[in-house]
């Protein structure tokens, strides 16, 4: 079948399944599939609801292809703003710590730093290790600071955390692609969505170097409460936003 007919048929199939950006998805699937059988299998996965990034095995993030394994939290485009803010604060040789790292996408964009990352999800850790290998990053498996070497205490220049911030009761309102195919631990922020942020901020000063920064992605609605959490933890805090990406980051300084 001519490529144009394959593309048209694929777009029609994807659109019928509810894919809003069917043309773009069709192009990505065609570019990624190595055989017609593989393409058929990928289309079937996508039509049944599997996130496109899990079907492809990667997500684009700040110009990089980030490996994304099934079940692992897919890096959102809004989180590029968090990565940009971290990059603006990091200097060559800075010690950078990425907590709740997921795929390791944020750290993977930071070259020339001493990168450390951690996540509680074993699947995410395996994924992150592949993604940060190119920048020499090290990834630890465990709950927040628990698996980190003590040698990092008081030495971290930039601590970045895309901690889950969806309130538990709101998980059911998320799109099916998120609530059915991504690890719950990467989504659930507790009763008010801020439980993990509180834990990150509470110990941040123990790990930050003097003048070091903590950056956390949050929502615009939650940002004032996130600032309060930072202040209670002894950090000076400010809010930065990006309208284009609908992104909000709270930046704290020790």
UniProtKB/TrEMBL annotation:
* UniProt-listed CDD domains: AdoMet_MTases
- UniProt-listed Pfam families: MTS
Q: Which residues form the Methyltransferase small domain?
A: 66-166
The UniProt entry's GO biological process terms, in alphabetical order, are: methylation
Record's keyword terms, sorted: Methyltransferase, S-adenosyl-L-methionine, Transferase
Q: Give the Gene Ontology MF terms in alphabetical order.
A: peptide chain release factor N(5)-glutamine methyltransferase activity
The broad enzyme category this protein falls into is: transferase
- Which catalytic reaction applies to this protein? L-glutaminyl-[peptide chain release factor] + S-adenosyl-L-methionine = N(5)-methyl-L-glutaminyl-[peptide chain release factor] + S-adenosyl-L-homocysteine + H(+)
> In the Enzyme Commission scheme, what number(s) does this protein have?
2.1.1.297
Q: Give the stretches traversing the membrane.
A: none
The family database entries (PANTHER family) matched by this protein are listed as: HEMK METHYLTRANSFERASE (PTHR18895), MTRF1L RELEASE FACTOR GLUTAMINE METHYLTRANSFERASE (PTHR18895:SF74)
Its name, as the record gives it, is peptide chain release factor N(5)-glutamine methyltransferase
């Amino acid at each position: 079948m001519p490529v144009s007919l394959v593309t048209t048929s694929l777009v029609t199939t994807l659109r019928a399944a509810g894919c809003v950006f069917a043309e773009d998805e069709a192009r990505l699937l065609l570019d990624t599939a190595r055989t017609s059988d593989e393409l058929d299998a990928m289309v079937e996965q996508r039509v049944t609801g599997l996130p496109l990034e899990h079907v492809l095995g990667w997500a684009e993030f700040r110009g990089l292809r980030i490996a994304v394994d099934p079940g692992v939290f897919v890096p959102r485009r809004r989180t590029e703003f968090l990565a940009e803010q971290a990059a603006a604060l990091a200097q060559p040789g800075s010690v950078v710590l990425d907590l709740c790292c997921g795929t390791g996408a944020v750290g993977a964009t930071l070259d020339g730093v001493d990168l450390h990352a951690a996540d509680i999800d074993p699947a995410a850790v395996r994924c992150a290790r592949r993604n940060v290998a190119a920048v020499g990053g090290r990834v630890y498996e465990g709950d927040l600071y628990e698996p980190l070497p003590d040698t990092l205490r008081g030495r971290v220049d930039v601590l970045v955390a895309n901690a889950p911030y969806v309130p538990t009761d709101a998980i059911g309102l998320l799109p099916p692609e998120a609530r059915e195919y991504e690890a719950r631990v990467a989504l659930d922020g507790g009763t008010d969505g801020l439980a993990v942020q509180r834990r990150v901020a509470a110990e941040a000063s123990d790990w930050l170097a003097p003048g070091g920064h903590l950056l956390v992605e949050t929502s615009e609605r939650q940002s004032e409460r996130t600032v309060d959490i930072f202040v209670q933890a002894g950090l000076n805090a400010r809010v930065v936003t990006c309208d284009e990406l609908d992104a909000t980051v709270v930046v704290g300084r020790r």
